[in-house]
Amino acid sequence: MDRTRPRPGGLAEQIDGLRPGIDAVVGPQWERTSTILDRFGRFASEGCGLDGLDEVTLGIARSFVTAPTSAGELPSTSTMHWRRTALRLLFRAARRHGLVDGDPTLDLRLPPRSSLGTRPLTDDEVTLCRSVAQWSLAGSRRAAVWALGEATCRSSELPNVTGDDVDLDSGRGWIGGGKATAPRHGQLSDWGLVQVRARLAELEVPSLPLVYSGRSRAGAGQVSGASALVDVLTRAGLHHEPDVRPGSVAAWAGRRVLEETGRIDCAARALGVRSLDRAAVIVGWDWQADAGPDCS
């Protein structure tokens, strides 16, 4: 960072100036994210005497993320992760505006959110990954990959989805299935539908595969799809999380179906798995713990 450049206001002014862009990405989660950014602004300026975002170090970021709550209690793992995600959104926006050169949170390790081998992403993590997929890469391919992942498409299924498989009116896409998944319709998120529209506009022939241009869909195609998902997770700083893998994207979608319907069979159908127990494992739901005493 060239510290001889004129600084556009103090730290609080910089954060306020970046809010519109962050708000557009975060959407419904803005209120909580905005509160975190307000607290970080006061923490950094009043508590640490900083004048700009370019002065924030890894140590300062860690001190904020692990700071006690307003009730004086130690923050939960979930709270620490949410704080870190909010800061990553802030510094991503700051880099785009030339206010900083890096992100002090990228090397900030936190305890895993779960003990699962692969867990569903959380809503705040998906928001961060969307911003990475859309902002950081040329063209719309990786954003479309992420959009299909949000619709439960696995890396082995990604190469086979064509433009003809997507109904832009309903936002549904046909997923052909694989060795471990059944054919099904996947529902694109509102964000995902925008990205797929952009990808279709780039394709010369809509009937071509949306996100893979090679010939070996079964081999290289699966590797290509998995690599694109891993690339987004890496750029979002989530690759160090031991319970985050490419399957975490589809698991997030399945978890949302479970939360919206209260039915694990609906989540299993959306995920393309035939076993309810398998679906419960994917979405991180311990049905035995949630069954209650009346089920004994």
Please summarize what this structure is.
Residues 1-7 have low confidence and may be disordered.
The share of residues in helices is 40-55%
The second-level CATH architecture of the largest domain is Orthogonal Bundle
Largest sheet: 3 strands, antiparallel
Tell me the distance between the termini: 63 Å
Could you report the average pLDDT, rounded to the nearest whole number?
A: 88
Rg over alpha carbons:
21 Å
Shape: globular
Structural class: mainly alpha
**Total strands:** 3
**Whole-number tally of structural domains:** 2
Order of strands in the sheet with the most strands?
Answer: 1-2-3
Write the layout of secondary structure elements.
Blueprint: H1 11-26, H2 30-47, H3 58-65, H4 77-96, H5 123-135, H6 141-150, E1 166-167, E2 172-175, E3 184-187, H7 190-202, H8 217-235, H9 247-261, H10 264-271, H11 276-283, H12 287-290
Antiparallel strand pairs: 1-2, 2-3
Task: Walk me through the structure.
The chain folds into two domains: 11-96; 123-283, Intergrase catalytic core (hpI Integrase, Chain A). Helix 1 packs antiparallel against helix 2, helix 6 packs across helix 8 (217-235) and helix 10 (264-271) packs across helix 11 (276-283). Helix content is 51%, strand content 3%. Mean pLDDT is 88; it is low at 1-7. The protein starts with 10 loop residues before the first helix and ends in a 6-residue tail after the last helix. Strand 1 (166-167) and strand 2 form a beta hairpin. The chain has 296 residues and is mainly alpha-helical. The chain has helices at 11-26, 30-47, 58-65, 77-96, 123-135, 141-150, 190-202, 217-235, 247-261, 264-271, 276-283, 287-290, and strands spanning 166-167, 172-175, 184-187.
